[in-house]
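Protein modeling request. Please complete all fields; requests missing the sequence field cannot be processed.
Requester role: graduate student
Desired output: 3D structure, token encoding
Chains: 1
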Amino acid sequence: MASADNKIYFIITAKPPPPYGYIKAGEICFIDKQRFNTRQKNNDTDVLPVVRMGKVTDTLLDKVLLQPLSRRSAELLMAVESNEDRLLVLNDPEALEKASNLSAGCQVHVEYKGQWLTGVIRYIGSLKSFSSDPLTGVFFGVELQGEDKGKGQNDGSFSYKTYFTCPKNSGIFAPFTRIKPVYHKPSAPLLPTQSSLSITTTEPLKAGDRVTFFGDKNAHHGMVMDIKDHPDGKMVLISTDKDEEGKRGGEMLIPLDCVIKEELLNKDETEKMDTSQGAGMGGVTDSDEITVGSLVQFLGKTLLYGIVRWIGYLPDFPGMTAGLELEDSSAGVNDGTYKGKRYFNCPPYCGLFVKLSSCRPDDRFSGVKKKLFNGNSDNDEAMVSEEQDNVPPIRTEDVSNRLIGKMKGIQGHCNSCYMDSALFSVFSCSSVLDSLLFKTTEYETIQSILLKNIVNPLRKQGFVSEQSVMNLRKQLQKREHCPTYTTDEKDPEEFLSLIMQEILFLDPPLILCSQSGSIQKVQSCYYYQIFMDYNHHLVLPTVQQLLEHSFYSNSLKLAEVPSCLILTMPRSGKSFKMFPKIIPSTELDITGLLADGALSPAASMPQTQHPDSSSGLLLLTEFRV
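Delivered output (625 residues):
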């Protein structure tokens, strides 16, 4: 990446007010340092003349819309194609910092077509031969390794230019958002353990052993994942409890003579650990109930929760072992592989192998009927709901008992919050879109999962397991609607549009008309995004006020009374909230929003509605006209 220059870089965090409403939040821009310093001396920095990437003229933007970036961060963010994705990763400075520290030769996981593949960084830099901008996006060129060779997209070339060389289809160019480091080298030199405690002769190490290794000041602890041959001797792959900054553990490759078993270093401490993992968790009596698909908990450093994906025997691992996909994506150590062999599939750092006797049933589900999975997470009917009948929406008087409390709602997992909140909003307390669940379609599997595994359990029991939503996400990904549906976060409206428009083919419930001079345009849509000018004067608005303000300012009318009105609240990324709070309107007066001659309903539509402000979505099916 280029050295320091004479520019100051920013990212635009919110859509500017008119006349600059065409500028999008998430764009990268810059200003000359000399020009900025001059304005700073004159106390004139409330509004800055910045130049957006790809443009040659400057634009006056309010400073509150601009977040400063280092050149390094700006280069990394420029490689992220979507403005919305840039704003999302902007809230994860740790990811930017880790990406800045990567160098050629680092082993990484790279995401490609929904899969995380293993490789080595061979190139870091721009993929543009020429640009008039002061900087361009920085990409990572990765050569795939091992069994992932041949699963890539090129041989190290891009647009007829070679950036590195590798076998055919073993190279991938990706932004930092699709890169995860595999190993982290310790910053301090490691000290060999005392020969009297040597484990290479009397106490051989094996995968699963708890070990300690030493830096120049501190001892570090972790679990052996593998032992590898290296030109400098045998190396131990260790999943550490914490890294050197006290953050969550990572994987380290440590020389064998620098590692010692915890039980040899402190036998008493290990005995306490064994006691807490065994008797404290209920022991073998509980493990008798556990099968593949069971929801379990076990005690590690803290109490952890997960789903059993595999049960069996591992080489060099005593006793029956359970392979878990953990609920906490930062607590695992693998992706379902052990010593290079895959036993089950899960996202990176979500998998963990533990003694089956250390697991017990998840006690958070004591108030929920038990559900068992058939053990094949890729099967279309992996989760079988006990409730097969059609269940009506939850009534107002039942909401507090069925939807409020511990283990209620839809269980989140692996960036599913957008889908969870959308499904909850649409189906928990409203039947206005139930026609989706019963209409004839070629996508019967998706429709069945929605009805039997999500909607019915939510309405009947007030709870849906993450596995049901993951099954839906896998079906969407399997049909190539998007290669990252099982891993990445998306917009709720994007998901709803996909379900309603491309899969279950629902006619758009919303017909809008706009007037431009003497020309009237009519368009149909599935939801309405409320847009607000940045210089509005509303402080604590209601949904009624926002809807009217947005319609009037955009010269819109309703061509007919909609059967369903899905609204998305005004927003400009996570880092900027247009309103601290929005007051829900359980009833909308749309009289003033109807076009002349608009169709009126034959009767009122007293449907139950459910607002869900956490997702930015509001489903309304009750109107006053």
